[in-house]
Structure formats: C-alpha cells, structure tokens
Amino acid sequence: MLGILTFLNLSLLTSILDVLVVALIFYYLIMLARGTRAWQIMWGLVVFGLIYVLSDWLSLTTLTWLVRQIGALAPAALVILFYPELRYALEELGRVQFWRNRLAFLPREDLNRVVSEIVQVSTNLSARHVGALVVIERETGLDDLVATGTRVDGEVSSELLETLFHRGTLLHDGAVIIRGDRIVAAGCLLPLTDSPGVSPSVHTRHRAAIGVSERSDALVVVVSEETGAISLSYEGKLVRGLKAETLRGRLLSALQPSNGRDGKLQILRGRVREK
Fold first, then answer.
1. Tens digits of residue pLDDT in 220-267
2. Element (H, E) at 119
3. How many structural domains is the chain composed of?
C-alpha cells in the first residue's frame, strides 16, 4: 500500500513538473513574440481557428471545405511565417543573458536625466537638420541589433550623442541603442518595416524606426535630416512633428510603470549588461 502511495505521489509531482515546464516554455515564447510581427500572426491564426469552428457549427459546407484545404498546408506555412522568429528564439535560448533577470531598476532621477539628454540632443540636431536614430531598449532585448554596430558603453549625454551623429563620422547613419543610462552601441543596423500600411514617402531612417518598434517594445526617436522634424516610433506606429516638451512627456509616460516602488522604475534595461 505504501508503495502505491509513493508511486501516486511521484506521478503527481511529475505531472505538476510537466505542466510547469510547458507553461514556462509558452511564457518565454509569448515574451519573445510580444510586440513583434509574430504576435500579429498568432492573433491571425486565432481568428482563422474561430472561422473554422463557426463554419463547422453553422454547417457552412463550402467555407468549411475551404478552411480545411488551407489548414492542410498549415505545418509548412507556419515554418515559413515564423522562420525569423524561430531562429531568433533559438539564438535567445543559447544566450546566458536570456536566463538572467530581464529587468533592471533605474532611479527616477536617472530616468529624468536620460530623457532630458535625449530631448536636448534631438532639439539640437533638429535645429541643424542633422539626422539621428536613437533606440531606447526596454524589456525586449536588442543584443542582435547591438552586434551590428560599434560598442560604446558610455553614459548617456547630449554631447556624446551629438558626437556620434556628427556628419562625416562613420557612425552617423546608423542607430544608437540605449540600455538603462548607458549608450551600448552606435552605428547599428535596424530592420526596415515591410508593412504595406507605411507610405512610400516614408524614408529609410523612419522605416528603420518603425521596423525595430514592430519587432520589440523599444521606443525610437528619429530626427529627419531633410526637414529636421522629430518623430517617435513605438508599437509599429510613427508620431511625427513632436516639440521638445511633447517628446519629453511621451517618453516619460511610456517609460514610467504604473506602480514603481521607492521611486525606482523598472524600465530601460532589457537585460543585465554583459561583463
């Protein structure tokens, strides 16, 4: 009898462990997909599944047959649709940083200083029509984009940012990535958006800003080289023609959590900085 109870307890623990592992895998997959094109595709698949269920329930024979024919191609279609995200997920699993704490704390005064420096440099560059692309990393890590640029690891300041975006330098046309209160890298290459909703009149620098905001929860400040206009991209959207105070307000509003503790904010650092 004791042996049976021991077996049942072991079986129960194994089942609980199994459920927890699967839940953890799904959690990390959702965290990786959140704010990216994969997230939108997942919702599209949910809608597709609802259409199938409703068509079968309502006995819509033709629609049900059509959905089933499309569903037969699902395995190959999923691999094609999620190929970039699957590759990125495997790369993330291989990084030690992925398993560390994905959030770091930044004091409120440091947040205000970082935002002020970004607003200041944006205003200065805008007045001289110097193009700029500043990516503020949040929870989604951008190590793959950092790897495309030149490591800087300097404290955020308007003077350093102006130097990095100075015309004629090798890093001028690339993006600067900020993590916490540090400039991690400059001259980074960003993915361009392929969204059909983006107007052909939107130029490369702004397309890059939209592209990275589609793939992550980053905030991207853009200064147009042609017009000097300041824009902010987030969640795949682009807001143009921002004044200094409007930009400051939007950045602070987006970066401040609703329930910070002890004046500290869980915001800018996507993961622990490499040693």
1. 999 999 999 999 999 888 999 999 999 999 998 888 764 444 333 333
2. helix 108-127
3. 2
